[in-house]
Amino acid sequence: MLKESLEMCAEAASHLQARPLCSLDHSPFNRLQVTKPADRYDYVVEVCRGERVLDLGAYDETEVHRFGSRVYRWLHADIAAVAEEVLGVDAAETIRSAGEIQTTLGTRIVYGQVEDLDDIIADFKPTVIVAGELIEHTQDTLGWLSRVAARCPGVRFVATTPNATGIINMLLAFFGREQAHPDHTQVYSYRTLWTLAGRVPMTQYRILPYYYNRHLFYDRVPRWCGPLVTLLDNALLRPVQRLFPLTATGLILDGKMGRLSGS
């Protein structure tokens, strides 16, 4: 599975280099050319390898508190393991009161709002900006992304976000239920995320789905249910997402900030 994810990451990189413009037929009858899902952690890690990474929303309290667990992964830790340098930015109260924190990884996470990143970007000079599971939380997502694009044109930007047509909520809908974080103010589909990227603007961008990360679910059920979660994922969720990629749990947006030179 890791080999498959790495191959998909390499394919994504080659597409990014080869694709100068982005277009999408918005007719509902046009079949979307969606790739097979990837593992979002592995994909982001490969993008960040050897880069100067600005990690927005780095202090995920849920994952920080479980860091070191055999089933939990903290994206900031995965990035730190491969990046040339990583600087985290977060608006969590824990960081606001301290100004910044030093992690056990040897990285810094500084206090900052996505609407006011100019000084941080100017000082750090990132080659890659990551927004993991963040854009669905922010009030003016198009506004702050546009400011970042104007501030650092040509910098690679990768965002991950839940998918509006994901299989979990499709199944829950039949029972009058929905899974959503209480802080989410928006949810993106393949087409709406494509539209957002074009209006930022971004260039040479692509969208690919990512699989449900079952490790996020293990702590929500009794320990004896863990094998059942694994079985359900392997026998149903993952095969369906692979066959029908638009049912994948989330989406990865990967491209470059700003317009192409001369456009």
Name the CATH superfamily assignment: Vaccinia Virus protein VP39
Helix content: 25-40%
Can you count the helices? Answer: 10
Strand content: 15-25%
Main sheet properties? 8 strands, mixed
N-to-C SSE series?
HHEHHEHEEHEHEHHEHE
Query: Can you name the CATH architecture?
Result: 3-Layer(aba) Sandwich
What structural class is derived from the secondary structure elements?
Answer: alpha/beta
- The radius of gyration over CA amounts to 18 Å
Contiguous low-pLDDT stretches (5 residues minimum) are 13-21
Termini separation: 40 Å
**Mean pLDDT across all amino acids:** 87
- Described by the principal axes of the CA atoms, the overall outline is globular
Strand order of the largest sheet: 3-4-2-1-5-6-8-7
Record field, number of beta strands: 8
Integer count of domains: 1
**CATH domain fold name:** Rossmann fold
Broad CATH class:
Alpha Beta
Structure in words:
The chain has 263 residues and is α/β, with parallel strands linked by helices. The protein has one domain (2-18, 35-255): Rossmann fold. 36% of the residues lie in helices and 18% in strands. The chain contains 10 helices and 8 strands. The chain has helices at residues 2-18, 40-48, 61-64, 75-80, 93-98, 118-124, 141-151, 167-173, 190-199, 226-243; strands spanning 52-56, 85-90, 100-102, 108-111, 128-132, 156-162, 202-210, 250-257. An 8-stranded mixed β-sheet has the order 3-4-2-1-5-6-8-7, with helices on both faces. Helix 1 packs across helix 2. The radius of gyration is 18 Å and the shape is globular.
